[in-house]
Amino acid sequence: MRVLLTNDDGVWADGLQALRRELLGVPDIQLVVIAPDGNRSAMARSITTRRPLWVERVDFGDGTHGYATDGTPVDCVRLAKLGLVEDFEAEAVIAGINHGSNLGDDVTYSGTVAAALEGVLLGLPAIAVSQQSANREMDFRLGREFDFQVAAKFAASLVDRLDEVPLPPGTLLNVNVPGAHPQGVSVTKMGKRIYRDELRLKAEDGERRQYWIYGTDHGFHDGEDTDLAAVAEGRIAVTPLHFDLTDVAGMDALRQYDLEHMVAPAAQEVDG
After folding, report:
1. Is 8 among the annotated ligand-binding positions?
2. What terms describe the molecular function in GO for this protein (predicted)?
C-alpha cells in the first residue's frame, strides 16, 4: 500500500516522526512524507493559491527522506496527488500524530483533520490521529509532555488493516488517544464543545490595539458515546467523519416554504 503521511505540526514534529518510524516497520507499505516546514496548527482547510510553494527534500537520518513545504496541510496532500514524488500515487492518507487532541467541534479548525479530509475528497481512505498530552487537558491547548508510543502503534496497526475496516466511501477516521495508558477503544460520535472565549486587550499603540480573542479551559457537553467523553474516560476515541454537511431535515422544511415567489420581485429590482 502506498501511504502519504502528513501533519500540521511540521515535518520534524515528534508525533509525525514517531508514526513515521512505526509505519516503516509495517510490511508492504511504501511510505512518503510530505509535511509543512513549520507549525500550521488550526489552519483547517486553508490552501495556497496566490503564490508558488517551496518544497525541500529533508533527510531523516535513517536512510529515508521526506519533503517539507511552506504550504498548508491540505497543500501537502495536493502536492502528492499532483505528482510531486515520481512513481508514487497515494492509496491512503494518514495525518498526525497531532500534538494535542482534536475532539468535538474542534475538528473544524484542525489542519490534521483537514489533511485527512482532503484525502477522502480525492477518493482515498484517510485517518487523522491526535494525542492528548500527559496533562490530559480536554481542549486543543498543547501540554508540554507527550508519549506517542501507544498512539503510533495503534495507528500503524489500523493502517495495516485498512482493507479490513468496513468504511463507507467518503468517510475518514478521526482517532484521539488519551494522555494516560488507554483503558480501551470506543467507536464514537462528535461531541459538543463549550467555548469560553473572551476579548482581552493585550497592548495599545495609538489607534492600534492588540487583542487576545480566545479563552481557556474549554468544556464539553457530557453526551453519551462522544469522542470527548471517551477520551475523558481514558479510552481511545475512533470517530467516523464525512464531508456531507447537508441538513436533510432542513431541506424538507425549506420545501414547505414557497421560495419561488421571491424570484420575480428580486428580478424586477435588478431590472429596475
Report:
1. yes
2. 5'-nucleotidase activity; metal ion binding; nucleotide binding
Residue-by-residue DSSP string for 184-224: -EEE-B---EE-----EEEEEETTEEEEE---S--EE---T
Euclidean distance between CA atoms 68 and 82, whole angstroms: 16
- The full set of domains in the chain, from first to last, is 2-191+221-247 (3.40.1210.10)
- Which residues does 254 contact at the CB level (< 8 Å), separation at least 6? none
Span 106-144, pLDDT tens digits: 899 999 999 999 999 999 999 999 999 988 887 666 677
The answer to whether the annotation marks 205 as part of a ligand binding site is: no
Q: Is 227 annotated as a binding residue?
A: no
- The model's pTM: 0.90
Radius of gyration of the chain measured on its C-alpha atoms = 21
Q: Which residues contact 82 (CB under 8 A, 6 or more apart)?
A: none
Residue 177 is predicted with a pLDDT of 97
